[in-house]
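Running log. JK asked me to keep both predictions on one page so they can be read side by side. First protein, sequence followed by its tokens:
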Amino acid sequence: MEQRDRAAVATFFAAEPIVSGRVTTLSEDEAHHARVRRIAIGDRLRLVDGAGSVGYGNVVRLGKAQAQVEIDLLDRLQPLAVVHLIVPIGDRDRMLWLAEKATELGVFSWRPLLWRRSRSVSPRGEGVAFQAKVRSRMVAALTQAGGAWLPVIYPDATLERTIVSCAAGARWLLDPRGTPVSRVSITAPLTIAVGPEGGVEDSERADLLANGFAAVRLAPNTLRFETAAVAALSIVRGALSSDSEVSRG
């Protein structure tokens, strides 16, 4: 895999299936990216589809609206251990920054939660149009980081709906009143819930604890939501990096 990566000029995202022996057409955005990168016909690229497939091939066509790559090698990357992220609906720019970092850290899913204190934030990152921006940032982060799995993006949800939809496995609520993370067992699959600016209200905290979430403390100080999420993901990825990481679910 490393030899193939060195042979490729850059990584691009393919919105359509990648099939060995066939031509894959890249989107207008990716074609623009290729022109900015001064990619030329004949250059070798690495393509990812966000679902574990990695293709290698040469550019056979490059225009303003699309680029085409003829695939001659196809690999399949195993996913990382499953980590779900419940993020607060908060400041738009900070959510977009977190979307990039969460992708780099291999999060499996991204679920925005409208906490009670989220309602006081303006401008908030919510709605279908904002989700499209989140996905665009994630695609860019995926190609830059060399990953192969794009996070699943769930629609905005209330706490009640989030609890009902929460995946099986270990569950954390990042909480300054919780157990220090150094004393917590880290296993996957794992769901990490990050509260809003101003913190989680007591009734919300009680609902989460009653539904299997463990309160976990990362630091002695109160962290901003994006800092807390990245810190937690980094700790978890470091702890799970020695695992076989062959399960995704």
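And the second, directly underneath as requested:
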Amino acid sequence: MTVQLEKEELMEENFYPEKQIDEKKYSCQILLEKTTIQQANDKSFPTDARLIWYKVNGTEYVDLTRCRKTVELFDMYYDKYGKGAVQKIDFGYGSVNPKLWGYKSKDSEKKKK
């Protein structure tokens, strides 16, 4: 009886299948998924981007994401990877104003005289 419970607990702790989660439901946007700190250390990202460290099957990953609130970011990763997956959430290294990030200027047309 106890051996079966230990096996179930071990499987539950080490196996969290990746679920397909709709980012829009959580008002989040994943900018870089399963990346490194060196790649995320780019000043061209917005200032509201956050780094999140999480573990899946004993392997630690880092994502760079944008979200309105940190709790929504936590909820998204909790629902996707399960209990105990989220290790740490920290600020990103971006320096671009979030309102201007990804902005493309209009093509300037010549004015008629």
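Observation for JK regarding the second prediction: The first helix runs from residue 2 to 14.
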